Amino acid sequence: xxxxxxxxxxxxxxxxxxxxxxxxxxxxxxxxxxxxxxxxxxxxxxxxxxxxxxxxxxxxxxxxxxxxxxxxxxxxxxxxxxxxxxxxxxxxxxxxxxxxxxxxxxxxxxxxxxxxxxxxxxxxxxxxxxxxxxxxxxxxxxxxxxxxxxxxxxxxxxxxxxxxxxxxxxxxxxxxxxxxxx
Length: 182
Fold this sequence. Notes:
The protein has helices spanning 18-29, 82-90, 115-126, 141-147, 162-181; strands spanning 7-11, 35-45, 48-55, 61-66, 74-75, 78-80, 101-107, 131-135, 153-156. The protein is of the alpha/beta class. It is globular and about 50 Å long. α1 (18-29) packs parallel to α5. The longest helix is centred in the last third of the chain and has 20 residues, at 162-181. A 9-stranded mixed β-sheet has the order 5-6-4-3-2-7-8-1-9, sandwiched between helices.
């Protein structure tokens, strides 16, 4: 059975710093290896969260959801643009031969509305490339199924332990990638 590599899923309460942690690791790794994936950022207007935007490490951007979208499906007050999300996903070389690390922020309710996204997540867990992802603390049956897999490691973070976890993950990813190059 081939080695599946590091599969690290970071979870925690909203606002605990999951995205901040992942962004800091991307900044650290951008000169050390090729990263594929995306970060999810809030779209804020006049101090209010109005939606979510996706940003790939190469700077490509796409709106995932917004309160003004009249689309179905909806998650809470947000219309989710599944078609646009899947187009965004198609442009990311998740399993390309030059990719050293895959980062997904986040495996959440909105993202999991996409069949394509759920398929990509399952493929990434089976792939030998390291996967670093954030995942909802509580979620759909798909999210809970992913978190219960024996081949993934769940790390729960908080504002208090975020920097210690970041330092540990930085070392572990470095060691893993160094082994792969030998």
